[in-house]
Specification:
With 139 residues, this protein is an alpha+beta fold. The chain has three helices and six strands.
Amino acid sequence: MDLNKLMIDYLAEEGFRPHETPFGIAFKIEGINYLYFNDLEDEQYFRLMMPAIFEVTEDNEETIMRVMNEVNGSIKVVKLYTMDMQDEEGKEKETSVWVAFEILADSTPELADIVPRAISLLKGARLAFLSRLEEVADH
C-alpha cells in the first residue's frame, strides 16, 4: 500500500490540486492550507495537518499551551501542538500552532471516508482553539 500515491490520486480526483513538497503533499481548501505527511517507516500511519494556524510568542505562550490542552482533551483524533519553523534562509525561527489528524489506516483505506472527516475535525479543532483563545483574551 502506498498511502502517498493514494492520497495524491484522491485529492486530484476531488479537484484539490495537490503538489508534493519536501514536507509532504500540500493542498488548499477554501483558502486553508493542509499538509499530508508520508511516513516511509510506517505505511499505515496517516497524518493530515493544518499548519501554522496561530503564531506563538513569549507573551502568549502560556495561554496558548493552556488552550491547546483544553482543545486536545475535548476533540477526538486531533491534537494541537507547537512547531518551530525556520525561514527560507534558515535564520529566523517562528513557533506556531499546528493541528494534526492522526490515525492508523488499514491495508485498504477508503480515503473518501477518511479525508472529509479528517478535514472536518481539523476545521473544528482550529475553530475551537481560536474561539477559546478569544474568550480567554476577553477576560
